[in-house]
Amino acid sequence: MRRIIFIALQLLSPVFLLAQTGIITGRVLRADTKEPLAKVSVFLSNATVGTTTSEDGTYTLRGIRPGQYDLVTTSVGYEEQTQQVLVGSQQLTINAELKPQVMQLGEVIVTDNANWKNNYAMFLTEFLGTSANAKQCKITNPHDVTLIYRRSKKTLEAFSYDFINIENKALGYRVKFLLKSFKADKLNNLISWQGRLLYEDLPGSEAQKRKWEEKRQDTYYGSSLHFFRSLVSGNYAKEGFIMNILARRPNPERPSQELIQRKIDKFQMVNRDSLNYWVRMYELPKYQEKLYRQPIMPDQVVRPTDRNGLYGISFPECLYVIYTKKHETMDFKDIYRPLDMENFETSVVTLYKPYAMFDNNGAVVSSQSTLFEGTWSKSKVAELLPVDYVPSASYTPPYLK
Questions:
Q1: Cα 314 to chain centroid, rounded
Q2: Is the backbone of residue 34 left (phi > 0), alpha (psi -120 to 50) or beta?
Q3: Rounded CA gap, 139 and 162, in Å?
């Protein structure tokens, strides 16, 4: 089954990255009256650093791992403000002025309780996933999620006006998720979302915290976060990664996915022979592919930028990333794998833009620039780690024991 998720070269020392932390301070005012705003949420999206403003509108964020972040300032009744910041060891001062939100009439959504339950069940599957981690995740305010299912297009859309609160008891996080948009395209098996996340550690005993840390590390090793960090540190081969180029061309014998699905729907109850034909079309591979087995080096795909701590990655065709320290447990129908290749975790990266940008945290910071297939596509919200997460030095991954 194909699963896809949307989301330079100075080598930096990991010791430097771990030793240095940044500070951001500032003040939040109301844009029209210049009065200070209290209890405004100020946080770094996809990280564990956040706070609320005091009565005079001031805030301070401390202990920030260097890297590029979206600094989010948000409060009910005001327009959200997001600023891209590059954090180093120097203190930053960033002020914000929020405009009162003008309410606009949007699409009228009419649904009954049964439809909402069905749509919500579908949303949980595509948003949180179906893994062991997902089974330990719970959204505590489900009715704050607005859901729209478009039957003709086989798409589920979702968004939230306020934070969705998620308790991830597998990884030990409470996640506040401001969901701007979510779309599950069941026709093409595509999932995409945009939003702002703030992670907080769940309370627990020391034994529970050790268990969470082991689970976090197991999730981290082999992830896209781990991979991009290994490119920055220069240790990608030692860390267990191999990169190849995968050339792809559309299979000329296979009709479009939309046409195939339309024909299957049409003949499902009326013509078995025609149905069987279109099912065979569905099962044809989507691509003609060739894997170039010569490994490529980081300096062949990673490029410098004019901003310290930011990197660009570009490559022809698709990037084929193998992680040699874990075996894949899921059968990905559309991921090419040579017969003589061991069943290692494998991901395919496609660029929607000429290049993607990532920072020294290992986070892709260019919006909608990359498409992940294979192993990395399994990482839904239940498997997401904050971008400022750092594995404990004392931990030994299971495959090294």
A1: 19
A2: left
A3: 13
> pLDDT for 150-161, tens place per residue?
887 889 999 998
Looking at the chain, the domain(s) classified CATH 2.60.40.10 span 14-98
pTM of the model: 0.82
CATH topology of domain 14-98: Immunoglobulin-like (2.60.40)
User: What's the rounded Cα separation, in Å, for the pair 245 and 349?
Assistant: 10
Tokens of 140: 């505590």
pLDDT at 257 over 80: yes
Paired with 167 in beta bridges are 138, 174
pLDDT tens-place string over residues 22-50: 999 999 999 999 999 999 999 999 999 99
* H runs (alpha helix) in 39-171: 113-127
Residue 323 burial class via C-beta count within 10 angstroms: exposed 0-12, middle 13-18, buried 19 and up: buried
Instruction: Count Cβ neighbours within 10 Å for each residue of 333-372 and write b for 16 or more, e otherwise.
Output: ebbbbeeeeeebbbbbbbbeeebbbbbbbbbbbbeebbbb
Higher pLDDT, 151 or 341: 341
